[in-house]
Amino acid sequence: MAPSTVEAAAKKGRVRIRARVAKKILAVHPTLDNLPDWARIDATGTRRRLQALMVAGWSAQVLASRLEMDRNTIRKILLADVVRVSTARAVRNLFRVMWNRQPPSELRYERASVTRTRAYAARQGWAPAAAWDDIDNPKCRPKGVPRRETPLDTPAQTAA
Fold first, then answer.
1. Is 90 in contact with 63 (CB distance < 8 Å)?
2. Strand partners of residue 40
3. Does position 50 have pLDDT exceeding 80, yes or no?
4. 107 in helix, strand or coil?
5. Helix crossing, 60-67 with 44-55: angle to 10°?
6. Mean per-residue pLDDT for 68-96?
7. What count of other Cβ atoms lies within 10 Å of the Cβ of residue 86?
8. Which pTM does this prediction carry?
9. pLDDT confidence of 156, banded at 50, 70, 90?
10. Rounded to 5 degrees, what are φ and ψ at 127?
């Protein structure tokens, strides 16, 4: 379907569209893979993925480095309600690689970083990766994690 057809169908004040056009439009199911990079989406899955990596001990600094972002950007994502699709894709791809790996802890400063990050994540009540049946679903609750008075997946008050 031509973009101009979709634009015409979405035009403000437009009351009716052809049934075949409506059927084609409604057949589209947006996903991270077919949305444009600049689009904004709910940040729940992106936040939870970063939180789960931090539960495992991956620091915000290491995550920022792997994502080629500034550490403050990680903090902003942890506080965000929406993120760009390009950011969600990058975090999703990093999570796929790192979710079941342990951070480096051979050197003393690495062990200290892992310990600090895990302690911070525990204080925040964040859930590990395996606790989620559907990490992107805002209604999904983590399994095996005690329920807190404040929702686990709301943006953190402060980010590590």
1. no
2. 84
3. yes
4. coil
5. 120
6. 96
7. 14
8. 0.78
9. low
10. -100, 150
Please report which confidence band the pLDDT of residue 153 belongs to, taking 50, 70 and 90 as the band edges: low
Read off the pLDDT band of 155 (50, 70, 90).
low
Assigned token pair, 72: 């403050």
| DSSP letter assigned to residue 84 | E
Residue type, 46: T
Partners of residue 83 on adjacent β-strands = 41
- Confirm if 160 and 54 have CB atoms less than 8 A apart: yes
At 41 the three-state DSSP class reads: strand
**Contact at 8 Å (CB) between 38 and 115?**
no
Place of tokens 């059927």: 23
- Rounded Cα distance between 43 and 32, Å, is 12
The CB density around residue 70, as the number of other CB atoms within 10 Å, is: 12
At residue 12, does pLDDT exceed 80? no
| Contact status, residue 21 vs residue 1, Cβ threshold 8 Å | yes
- Asked whether the beta carbons of 38 and 83 are under 8 A apart, the reply is no
Indicate the residue type of 94: L
